[in-house]
Task: structure prediction
Amino acid sequence: MKKYLLLVVGLALVLAVVGFSGCGQGSTVLEGVSIASQQEGIWVTGQGKVAAVPDIATLRLGVEAQEAGVAEAQTQAAEAMDRVITTLAENGVAEKDIQTQYFSIRKVTKWDRDKEEEVVIGYRVTNMVTAKIRDIDKAGTIIDAVAEAGGDLTRIDSISFSVDDPSDYYTEARQEAMAEAKAKAEQLAELAGVTLGKPTYISEGIQAPPITRGVVYEEAVPGAETPIIPGEMEISLSLQVAYAILD
Result:
C-alpha cells in the first residue's frame, strides 16, 4: 500500500513539472505545437557567409599630455584636442560621428631610493575619441592631418572597418544558409527512407563581423600619405531548421 501511494505521488509530481514547463515563458509555439515539447522531425543547421566590402572606417584617436602640474597638462591636452576635432570636421567627419571614449587625469610617479617611497613627478591627461569616417578613401589623409594637428601629443590607437547597412549582405547569407539546411535535411530524409515535410521551426543566429584593429600611425613621414587598405570582411549567420517527417 505504501509503495502504491509513493508511485501515485511521484506520478503527480512528474505531471505537475511537465505542465509547468509546457506553459513557461521559454517555450515557443508554432502552428499550435510547442517547440519545447517537439521531439519529432529532422533538425539541421545551415551556415551562410558573404564577403562584404567595408564602407566605414572608425578611428580610435586622441591626445596625451604630461606636465609637472595638472593645470598645465590639462591645458595642453585641451588645446591639442581642439585642433584635432577641428581638423576632423574640416575633413568631412560629422560631429555626430565623433564620440568620447576615454578621459583621465593620472599622477605619474617614480620610486625614490633615498626616501624609499613613491614620489609624484607629474600628471598625465589622456583624452581619446572614436571618429567614424564615412568616406573611407579619405582615411589615410585624415590620419595624417590629425597627426599634424595634434603634434607630439597625438595618439592614434587603432582602426576598424564596418558596413553601414549590411541588410543586403544578410539577405544573401540567409538564402545561402537556408539552401544548405534544406540540402542537409533532404539527404538525411533519403538516408532514413522517409519523406521530408515543411519546416516547422526556424531560428536565426547572426554572428557579428570580426573587428580588424591595428596601430595605423607611429611617426610622420614627410611627403608620404599613410596607406589604409580596408580589404574585405565576412558577414555570416546560421539557421537552425526543423523539418516535419511525412511518413
